Every structure is written in C-alpha cells, then in structure tokens.
Amino acid sequence: MEEIKLEILGLSSSQSQSGSFALVLGETSGNRRLPIIIGMFEAQAIAIEIEKIQPNRPMTHDLFVSFAHTFNYTVEKIVISDLKEGVFFAKIVCTDGQKVEEIDSRPSDAIAIALRFDAEIYTYERILNEAGIVLTEGEEFPESEDVPATVPAESAKKDTDLKDLSMDRLKEILQEAIDNEDYERAAKIRDELGRRN
C-alpha cells in the first residue's frame, strides 16, 4: 500500500470538548487535511517538542526515546494505519539496523515520539479518502504551529445532534465548517457521515 507523507499543520484547543485538542495533519503534496482529536497530555507532549522546550524531568515520550537509544533502536517513521468507527490507529516503525519492528500506538503518542526522533509521518490513501477534509480552491490553512482557536458564530451555538440531521444537511454543514476552518467540528461531522456509510 502506498504511503502518503503528512506534516503537522496545527494544534488548537477544542471548542466543544473540554480538555481536548484538534491536531491537524496535512498531506505534503496535496490539499487534504486530516484532523484528529487528541487529549490534553498528548497535545502538551507534541507542543513541548515542537517548541523545543526542555522540561525539568523527562516526560513519558522522552523516556521512550531513552529506552530505545539504550537498546540501539531508532524510529524510522510512524504510520496512521487504520480508522475504525471514528477511531484512528497508528504504528511506530522501529529498527535496530538489522530487523524492523512495528509497534501499535495511538496516533497522538506516535506523533509525539516521531517528533523526538525527527521521523516522518505517513498514512494511506484510504484513510485520507475516508477521513480527510479537502480544502477548496482559494482556501488556505494557517502555516503556523498554533492554529488560532476561533469559533465561528454557528459553532458557538450548541451543535444540533448530528444523528438527527439528513445526509444532505450534514454535507452542507461540513462544507461550512471547512470554509470557517473549524476542523474539529468538520471531523465530528465527517465521523457521523462515515458511520452512516
């Protein structure tokens, strides 16, 4: 299966889920975006490494790096390998120079580790087809490490229960969310559409 290279485009606090963050990945040679909702601790681990902040004591992901180096392993890449019922799965691909091992992981942990090894992030076409959000012509995603946590007026209101909406209406509000760069909301709508297909 051909792998598609991704890069981190943004990390912003969730507007609707307290303690959650939206991590937005984008394909390096295209305009599709892959938003993933992650927890606060994983977001912190990713942000600390992006900003090259040195914590007083090693974090869990730093411990993984020390452990791997002790046994002469390095991380070659991580792959967001599957999507089941709206939940992403990943693999950390490691090597000691002689054999290659794949370790199952949550994407948030895998990305935090990949950053520490300067390893690349990949996914498959089927994942982007199922969960990716395509930016229309003229749209641009902010090119900074932090995506402003803006709330479009319609998103500020309590979302209607997505299960009660028609497919056509879901597609309309998905496009509105993308137009407003509300990728967290778009991810929820995408997941609801995916559950119905």
Task: Explain this structure.
By secondary structure, the chain is α+β, with helices and mostly antiparallel strands. The protein has one domain (3-148): Bifunctional nuclease domain, CATH 3.10.690. The protein is built from 7 helices and 8 strands, in the order E-E-E-H-H-E-E-E-H-E-H-E-H-H-H. The chain has helices at residues 40-50, 60-70, 107-117, 125-131, 153-156, 167-179, 183-196, and strands at residues 3-13, 20-27, 32-39, 74-84, 87-95, 100-105, 120-124, 133-134. The chain has an 8-stranded mixed sheet. It is globular and about 55 Å long. Mean pLDDT is 82; it is low at 141-160.
When the domains are counted, the total is 1
Portion in strands: 25-35%
SSE arrangement, N to C? EEEHHEEEHEHEHHH
**Helix-strand category:** alpha+beta
In what order do the strands lie side by side in the largest sheet?
6-5-4-7-1-2-3-8
Question: What value does the average pLDDT take?
Answer: 82
CATH level-3 fold name: Bifunctional nuclease domain
End-to-end gap? 23 Å
What global shape is seen? Answer: globular
Summarize the main sheet. 8 strands, mixed
* CATH architecture verdict: Roll
Let me know the number of strands: 8
Helix content: 25-40%
- CATH classification class: Alpha Beta
State the fourth-level CATH superfamily: Bifunctional nuclease domain
